[in-house]
Amino acid sequence: MSCPLCLRQKVEQFDQDKSRHYLKCDCGLVYVPREELISEADEKKRYDSHQNSESDPGYKNYLNQIAEAMLPFLNKKEEGLDFGCGSSKIMEEILSDNGFKTRSFDLYYHPEEALLKGKYHFLILSEVIEHLRNPREILLNLKGMLHANGKIFIKTKWYPDKIHDFSQWFYKRDLTHIQFFNESSFQELSHLLELEDIQILGNDLYLFRSTIEEK
Ligand SMILES: [Zn+2]
């Protein structure tokens, strides 16, 4: 069984609870063995149950805060894709209102495959990367959709290093969360994508971009 990010075979058991095992790769990624994942139908049911919270004003406020953190890093006329937007297209609306044309894709709610053939200056994966069944393949495909000097904004929670803290961590109790990152696995991801400048924008929000300066 190899790591879904770096494909290394060298993994150790990190934790176990009543639902599943958590393996840790040398790259730093902690992940659930793929044979222990819930079905896609059950996954969809869980997302459906989150839909109500998406019409909540608190959710819009939450997305506004993410957008505000990203806006200083966007340049005039740049266009983006909110990959894994969920049932709503609120981020698209917020950024488009700020002058950055944005489209929305979601595997379950907005599966417009044609959008995955487009090219973008920036991609947003907000609370998405921890859900991906094939993170390596999907992220490499996404990288291919970026213009030169494109940017990827990723929001996810880094896992606590100490096993005691991990065992009690609320984030792992969501059965649709199937891998967890830390600084080291983010480095691995940045090498994979050749976007080696990682900036922390605050509140679990990171910006990946190329170290090569735009002319
Ligand atoms: Zn790995």
Explain the overall architecture.
It contains six helices and ten strands; from the N terminus they run E-E-E-H-H-E-H-E-E-H-E-H-E-H-E-E. The chain has 215 residues and is α/β, with parallel strands linked by helices. It has a single domain (38-209), classed as 3-Layer(aba) Sandwich (Rossmann fold), CATH 3.40.50. A hairpin with a 2-residue loop joins strand 9 and strand 10. The radius of gyration is 17 Å and the shape is globular. Zinc ion is lined by residues 3, 5-6, 8, 25, 27, 29.
Instruction: Please state the second-level CATH architecture.
Output: 3-Layer(aba) Sandwich
CATH superfamily: Vaccinia Virus protein VP39
Radius of gyration: 17 Å
Which quaternary structure do these chains form?
single chain
N-to-C SSE series?
Answer: EEEHHEHEEHEHEHEE
User: What's the number of structural domains?
Assistant: 1
Our estimate of the beta-strand percent is: 15-25%
Name the overall outline.
globular
Task: Report the uncertain regions.
Answer: none
Work out the helicity level: 25-40%
Count of runs of 4 or more consecutive helical residues: 6
Largest β-sheet summary: 6 strands, mixed
| Structure classification | alpha/beta
* N-to-C span: 43 Å
CATH first level: which class? Alpha Beta
Distinct ligands: zinc ion
